Amino acid sequence: MERVTVIPVLRIFDVAKAKEFYLDWLGFKVNWKYQFEDSLPIYMQVSKGKMILHLTEHHGDCTPGSKVFIEIIGLKEFYKEINNKNYIHNNPGIEETPWNSICMELIDPFHNKLLFNESLKK
């Protein structure tokens, strides 16, 4: 099989809240955004390292409340980075899983869940 890239598309309802969560708190950056006119919904790509997400205000693109499983290296460092920012709308923790990993689940302002998972080597 050839190499493929999978990019989750997450429904958002408010660009300012999305930027506060994904950019200000999690440290993603906007790669590009598309908006046909100022009064119409935005579709944008955000990334942090190799993590890429598409965020959309378009009601027909996807369902709010989705869950994305993200394999990560350096989860404890990422946790410290975001925990130091004192984001009042989330208070995540790190848990050990039955599948030999540690994970941290975050819920964005639109009820989408991001599960950051780091495999433990034994």
Structure description:
A four-stranded mixed sheet has the order 1-4-3-2, with helices on one face. The chain has a four-stranded mixed sheet with strand order 5-8-7-6, with no helix packed on it. The chain is built from two helices and eight strands, in the order E-H-E-E-E-E-H-E-E-E. The model has no long low-confidence stretch (mean pLDDT about 95). It is about 15% helix and about 35% strand. It is an alpha/beta fold. It has helices spanning about 15-25, 75-85, and strands at about 10, 30-35, 45-50, 50-55, 65-70, 95, 100-105, 115-120. Strand 7 (about 100-105) and strand 8 (about 115-120) form a beta hairpin.
Short description:
With about 120 residues, the chain is an alpha/beta fold. The protein has helices spanning about 15-25, 75-85, and strands at about 10, 30-35, 45-50, 50-55, 65-70, 95, 100-105, 115-120.
Give the topology string: H per helix, E per strand.
EHEEEEHEEE
Number of helices: 2
Mean pLDDT: 95
Helix and strand content put the structural class at alpha/beta
* Largest β-sheet summary: 4 strands, mixed
Termini, distance in Å? 29 Å
Radius of gyration from the CA trace?
15 Å
Any low-confidence stretches, pLDDT <50, length ≥5?
none
How would the blueprint of this fold be written?
Blueprint: E1 9-11, H1 15-25, E2 29-34, E3 43-48, E4 51-56, E5 67-71, H2 75-83, E6 95-96, E7 101-107, E8 113-119
